[in-house]
Every structure is written in structure tokens, then in C-alpha cells.
Amino acid sequence: MQTERLLIRLIKKEDLNYYSDLLCSKKIQEDLTPLKSINEVENFVESAIIDAENKQRYVFSLFYKEDKKFVGFVELKVDNNDMGELKCVVCPSFWNKGLGSEAMAKIDQFAVEKLELSKMQGTCALFNSACTNLFKNVLKYDYIKTDLVDGKDYLFFEKQGHQKNIDYRGKLKTDIKDIK
Predict the structure, then answer these.
(1) How big, in percent rounded to 5, are the helix, strand and coil portions of the chain?
(2) How far is CA 126 from CA 16, 116, 122, 163, in A?
(3) Do the beta carbons of residue 74 and residue 92 sit within 8 Å?
(4) CA 106/CA 74 separation, integer angstroms
(5) Comparing C-alpha atoms, which of 99, 124, 85, 91 is closest to residue 15?
(6) Of 31, 41, 109, 180, which has the highest C-beta tally within 10 A?
(7) pTM for the structure as a whole
(8) Minimal CA–CA distance to 41: which of 9, 77, 15?
(9) pLDDT tens across 6-34, in order?
């Protein structure tokens, strides 16, 4: 898949170094439950690949089209009740460029059109105003609650009766191809 500025594909084993650098960085660990070792990151990558084969969780690696640099990832968890949950992690060097929003909108579209999910949820750290804006104003999710997760405050959003063809600033195409 792709957007105007991003190449988006399922995680692969060869992405391990990208994820290791990202998930073990101090800036990212402020927002996420930290992965403390390369073994934990390997487990994350391997389980993401298996989960995608089982259609339970999809982790999409994001690359900047211009120079093919790793931007981050979007995670889409899927349950048996036609519900998906979105989460995005972007490398600090790409913060405040709208790339996370662009990727999340594309994966949200994929969830509706390809996986036919009828309900979506999203979470973000309380202090992450860009992500909050994305869920509320771009993806049109409703705020549900604030809760503690691993000792950190998170906001929870949800969208029922999901709309098809969400257009993020006119940059998304409606043609969704197979992701493998």
C-alpha cells in the first residue's frame, strides 16, 4: 500500500534493526511500554508476522517514499467481533510532519474496505495532542475514556458504524490492493 508520501507494507524479519532502534529509544519509551532487549524486539517482530498470518494483528512498516527511510509503524489488532484497534509509533525525526496521520488514515481505510471491520478503536498517550487530534478531527472517532495502562495515562477513542472512503487531506486513494 502507499499514500502520497509513504510506502506501507507488512513487517518483515529484515525490519528487526529498524524496530530495535525505534522501540528501544528513550523518546519512544516515554509513550510505550519499553522493550528492554533485542530479544524482546525479536519476539515483537516474530509474533507480528505470525499474528498477520492468523489475521489477528497486522503491523505495517512505514517508509518515506522520497528516501526509503524507516518512519515507524502502525499496528492494527483485529478481534472476532469485526472490531479493530489502531496504534501508531513514529520515529522522533519524523514527528510533526503528518506522516503518522497519513499512515493511520490509510490503515483505517484498509480496515474498513479490505477487512470489512464495522467498529474501530484507538488509543494514544494523554500528552500526545497530535494523535488526539488525529482520532477526533481526522478519523472522526469519539472520545470514550481516559485510563491508566502500565502506569501511564491513555486516551481511548471509538467509532461505530464506520464510514468508508475516509479522505485524509485528499491524499488517499480508494484502490486497496492485497497487502502481501
Answers:
(1) 35, 30, 35
(2) 28, 29, 12, 26
(3) no
(4) 10
(5) 91
(6) 109
(7) 0.81
(8) 15
(9) 999 999 999 988 877 776 566 665 555 55
